[in-house]
Amino acid sequence: MAAESVPFDLGESGNPRVTTGPISGSRKVHVSTPSGLRVPQRRVTLTNGEHLDLYDTSGPYTDSEATVDVRRGLEPLRTTWITDREATGGGTQLSLARSGVVTPEMEFAAVREGVPPELVRDEVAAGRAVIPANRRHPESEPMVIGRRFLVKVNANIGNSAVTSSIEEEVEKMVWATRWGAHTIMDLSTGRRIHETREWILRNSPVPVGTVPIYQALEKVGGDPARLSWPVYRDTVLEQAEQGVDYMTVHAGVLLRYVPLAAHRVTGIVSRGGSIMAAWCLAHHEESFLYTHFEELCEIFREYDITFSLGDGLRPGSIADANDEAQFAELRTLGELTHVARRHDVQVMVEGPGHVPMHLIEENVRLEEELCGEAPFYTLGPLATDIAPAYDHITSAIGAAMIARAGTAMLCYVTPKEHLGLPDRDDVKTGVVAYRIAAHAADLAKGHPRARERDDALSRARFEFRWVDQFHLALDPDTARAFHDQTLPAEPAKTA
Amino acid sequence: MAAESVPFDLGESGNPRVTTGPISGSRKVHVSTPSGLRVPQRRVTLTNGEHLDLYDTSGPYTDSEATVDVRRGLEPLRTTWITDREATGGGTQLSLARSGVVTPEMEFAAVREGVPPELVRDEVAAGRAVIPANRRHPESEPMVIGRRFLVKVNANIGNSAVTSSIEEEVEKMVWATRWGAHTIMDLSTGRRIHETREWILRNSPVPVGTVPIYQALEKVGGDPARLSWPVYRDTVLEQAEQGVDYMTVHAGVLLRYVPLAAHRVTGIVSRGGSIMAAWCLAHHEESFLYTHFEELCEIFREYDITFSLGDGLRPGSIADANDEAQFAELRTLGELTHVARRHDVQVMVEGPGHVPMHLIEENVRLEEELCGEAPFYTLGPLATDIAPAYDHITSAIGAAMIARAGTAMLCYVTPKEHLGLPDRDDVKTGVVAYRIAAHAADLAKGHPRARERDDALSRARFEFRWVDQFHLALDPDTARAFHDQTLPAEPAKTA
Fold first, then answer.
1. Which helix or strand (DSSP H or E) is residue B218 part of?
2. Which of A316, A473, B20, B167 could form a disulfide with A269 if both were Cys (CB 3.0 to 4.6 A apart)?
C-alpha cells in the first residue's frame, strides 16, 4: 500500500480533517456478487417502508462502519485482483476485454450500473468505454465511462502553490465525491504538487486524472520553451508510479494548427493548449507529445493508464465554436486514438468548451466518427458567454444536451469559472448542477434504472412525505433548509 | 391616471421602498422613432470606447433622470395612443393588425427587438405573436411575445395573506424586471389581493398577468364547489378594469378529462386545474370556463386582454409527461384558441411542467399544430425530478431546449420551487437562470442581435478588460463579487 511507503509531512497542518458520515437519510450497503466482490451502494430508506439503492461515489467516508484514517489511506480494494492478474501475464482492461476476459473491475462496474458484466467487457473491447484504473491506484472503486452507461461527472480540484492547502484539497476530493463526482482531476500547481497528489491518490475512492504538462512546466520554471520530451516523460512516469488513472495529453496541438487560432475572438484558452502552442512556436518544431506519442503509449500500457486526449484548441467563446482549429485538432485526436488502441491503451477524447445549442450535436457526431466512438469527455459546454458567476448553469444546459447526444463524461463547471478559484461551496454547487445534467441525459437516453429515483421522489411529493422527498434529493440538506425557511418545521414535513 | 383615483392605504408600512438607480455600468438611453416614440434601452459603456445597447425591461426605476414616486405610479406612456385609437373606433392589437395597421405598441416593440414594425404586425395578425396590453394599463412599455422574436421570461410574484407584504410585492416586481423579467404574474392570495394588484399595476413597466380563479376562490371562502360563472366573471371584470394585461384561464379542464389524471404518479398539480377539476366533479357539470368561454372573449376584447390558456392538466412529474390527460386538454386549448381569435382576442397557450429532454420537442410540435401556432408559454419544463432546491437549474435545461424548439415565453422557476415561497434573492436567481435559458435559445435560433453581447463579453475576457466583462454580464454585481473574493482587486481588473 503506497500510503505507508510515502513519508507524508503536512507540517503544521497535521492530520487532514475530512467530512465523514452518511448522507442525510442514507446508509451504506454492499451488494455481493457471485464471484465474491462487495459493491457499495447508498440505500435511502423511506418512511413508507420502501427503500431505493443508489449508485454510490462517496467511498468509505460515508460508511458509518468504516474507519477512516487519512494518514494511512483507504484500504486497497484491488490489490489481490492486480497481483493475481500480474501472476498470469498482466494486461490492460482493453487487452483483457479483447481476449474475452471479464475482469473484477468490469464485474464491479457492471453491478454499479445494473447491467451484465459482459456488456461492460464488450464496450471496453470496442473502445466505446474505458475503465480508468492504474494498477498503482488499488484504492479506487472501479467504474466505467461510456455512452451505454450512466453519464459520469468529473470534478476538478487543485490549488496554486500554497503549502497549507494539502488538507483543503484532500477535503475537496472527499467533498466532491460525497455529492456525486465519479472522478476527480487534480490540477494542483506549485511547490508541493507531488505530495498533494500522493495524499489525494491514497485517499481517493474514485479514479484520479491529471494534466502532466502542468507539473512539467513547474519543473522548468514556468517557461514553455524549456520543456522537452525527457522532462515530460519523467513527469508522466512519476505520476504513473503514484497511481494516476487517466492523464490529459494535448498531443493534437500540431505546429501547423497554431495559426488557425490567430483570428479567433478568444484565441487559445486551454492552458495545456497554450503551453504546447508556445513550445511549437518557440522551437518551430512539431509537438513532442505528437512525435513521442508511441513512447507515451508504452508507459500508459505498463500502468494501464487511460488517455484523455486533450482539446488544446477548444473554443473559448460562442464565436469560436466548431471552427477549423477545433476540428483540425479533433482529426488528429482521432488518429492518435487508433495509435493508442494498437498499444492496448484505453482512450477518452476531450471536448469543448463554449458551444451554442445548435452546434452541440455536431461535436458528438464528429468525435464519434473521427475517434472510433471513444468515450467523449466534455467541459460543459457553455451555451452562452453572457453569465459569468452563473456558468454552472450556462454549462449545465450544454452539458445535458451533449450528454443526451452521447457524451460519456462531463467535466463540471463551478459558479467561479472565469472569475476565481472555487471554494468548497462552489465545488458542491458545480457537482450538483452536473449531476442534474447527467441524470437528465440518463432519463432521455432511457437508461434502465434512471427513472426509479424520479418516480420515488415524485410519489413522495404527491403523498406529502416531505422527509422522503429530502432524502431522495441530490442535496437533502439544502432541500430541507429551504423548506424550513418558509414553512413550519416538523408538522408540515410529516403531514 | 388610475394611481390617483385609488385610495392607497399601506397602513404602517407607508410609502413602499423600491430599488432604484442604474444597473452597474449601464445607463438609460432612449431611441427615437420616426413617428416620435421614445424607446428605452440600456447602454453599457465599455472601457475601450465602444458601447452596447441592450433590451431594457427595467422601466424608469433604473433611469437616473426619472423621478420615481410609487404612490403616484409610473407615467402613463400609452394614454394618448389609447385615447387616439378609441376616438377612431378602437380595436384590439389583433383586429388592428389584421386590418394592416401598425399600432404604436407594435412600433415600440419592434424597436426593442431590432426588427421592422411590419414583422410585428404580421406576426400578431397571424396569431403567432401577442402584445399583452390592456387599455387600462397605460403605464406598461409594450413588448411582443412570439417565436420570431427574442424569447421572453416571466417572473411570478405574489404572496399569501400577509398585510405588510404589499411593499414587498411591489419591490419584487421592480426587482424582477431589474434583472430582466419581461412580464410578471401577480399570484397573490389573501385579504388585500385587490390592493396589492393595484399597486403592482400602477407601478409596473411590464405587462402583468394573473390567474383570476385564485381571487374568485377567495370570494367563495376557498371552497371550489361554491364557485360559479357570475363570481368568476365579476372577478375578471374587476381585474380587467384594473389593467391586467393577460389572464390564465384553465378552460381546457373538461369534466371528461378529469378521470384521465386518476392514475398518474402526481395527479393534478396545477392549482387552477385542481380547482376546476374539483368544481366539475362536485357539480358533475362541464366547466363554466368552457361553457361561458365566448362571454369571456367579449370581456377580453373590450379591454384587449390576452388569453393565456392554462394547462390545468400539465404533468407534475417525469412519469406523467406527454400523457393522454395533458394532450387531451391541449386539443381543447387549440379549439378555444380559434374561438378567441374569431373574437379578435389574442391568445397564448401554456405548457408543462415536468418533461424529460427527449419528450420536449413533441410538446412544441403539438402545440403549434393544434393551437394554430399561438405563442407557447411554458413553465420550465423541469428535465428531472430529483433536485429540489435546484429546480431553477433542472428547469433551465428544459427551458433552453423548449425555447430553442419555438417556445415564445418561459415562466421562471426559483430555487424554492416545491419547497417554499421565493424571497428577493430567489427571484433574482430565477430570473437570471431563465435569462440564460432564453438567451441560449436566441443564439441557437439565430436571432440577429443575440450574439452581439456574447461577442462583446468574450472580447473583453480575452483582453482582460475585467470591468467590461462585469458590466456586460447578466449580473454584474455577483460577477464582480466572485472575482474580488479570490483575486486582488483593482490591479487584476484593469490588467
1. helix B212-219
2. A316
